[in-house]
Specification:
By secondary structure, this protein is an alpha/beta fold. Helices cover about 50% and strands about 15% of the residues. It has a 7-stranded mixed β-sheet with strand order 3-2-1-4-5-7-6, sandwiched between helices. Helix 8 (about 205-220) links the parallel strand 4 (about 195-200) and strand 5. Helix 4 (about 85-100) packs parallel to helix 5 and helix 8 packs parallel to helix 9 (about 235-250). Bound molecules: S-adenosylmethionine. S-adenosylmethionine binds near residues 114, 138 and 202.
């Protein structure tokens, strides 16, 4: 009996599955021994990354503070927190330039949607009238058909979820806003509109951009500026085409701003 048990144990030890399980056990033990070292290494890596990151953040904050000092005025939170820093920052700098130089003229936005950019125009130009042109019902089929025929439009966006009230509610100076609801350029009607110093055109499609440029450029004061959003946006190729066609037809130059969608900028 004793001899049989002894032989059985020897046989078990020699079986492949026993040997495999022993090998795995040895590997686990080996790894367990290494874990403290691995976690130490991870911790030291973490510290290095954090130090490097903190250093970068600190350098960024220092340069921002330096810029604030150079500008002699604080950039507000809307600008600092915006992913489209250059667009907002340029708007604010234009506003302060016009104030400094006592440039006359009112402001307008063609293509307001929910008023995110219009809110900032209203904020940085508190003393000027802001004309808000939009259908407030999204794109018009007359414009979309044209862009679709030319294959300019590569994305479909719905801009119908807005209202005049919700837009005016977010304006810091709603008493300075005049809403021109309807299809542009029909919404101009026969109204006598003033001259403008700042106009934002943000309507995405060829026809309202071209007619917007034709209308507003004539109405700009000397030194006045038009931002045309989305010039480099490949979802709306009609923007670039309209800007180029207008520039060529009237022999008027423009430059491209390095904001997120590469706005085209006209200065009179
Ligand atoms: C991209 S959204 C404007 C975004 C806005 N500027 C902002 O800051 O969020 C485009 C707007 O242009 C308007 N729009 C497009 N074509 C128009 C036209 N022919 N007449 C009036 N509004 C138009 C649309 O209704 C839509 O609200």
């Amino acid at each position: 009996m004793i001899i049989r048990d002894f032989l059985k144990r020897i046989w078990l030890k020699l079986s492949p599955s026993y040997r495999v399980s022993k090998r795995i056990e040895a590997q686990v033990e080996n790894l367990q021994n290494k874990i403290p070292f691995i976690s130490d290494e991870i911790k030291s890596l973490e510290t290095t990354i954090n130090q490097k990151y903190e250093k970068n953040i600190q350098e960024y904050i220092n340069s921002l503070n330096h810029c604030r000092h150079m500008y002699k005025r604080g950039r507000d939170e809307d600008i600092d927190n915006s992913i489209d820093y250059f667009r907002l920052s340029s708007l604010e700098l234009m506003a302060s330039k016009f104030k400094e130089e006592k440039t006359t003229g009112e402001c307008a936005e063609l293509g307001v949607f929910r008023g995110e950019f219009a809110r900032l125009i209203n904020k940085y130009f508190p003393d000027r009238i802001l004309y808000l042109f939009d259908t407030f019902e999204g794109f018009d089929i007359r414009d979309t058909e044209f862009d679709d025929e030319k294959n300019y439009r590569k994305a479909i966006h719905d801009f119908s979820h807005t209202s005049v009230k919700s837009v005016l509610d977010k304006m810091p100076y709603p008493e300075k806003c005049i809403v021109k609801k309807g299809y542009f350029p029909e919404s101009i009607n026969d109204d006598i509109l003033p001259e403008f110093c700042f106009v934002s055109i943000d309507v995405d499609l060829y026809k309202p951009i071209y007619s917007g440029l034709e209308f507003f450029y004539k109405k700009l004061v000397k030194g006045g500026v038009i931002f045309v959003h989305d010039y480099e946006n490949c979802d709306y190729e009609g923007v670039k085409q309209a800007v180029k066609d207008f520039s060529k037809a009237y022999d008027i130059s423009y430059f491209i701003m390095s904001d997120i969608c590469g706005s085209a900028v006209f200065i009179k």
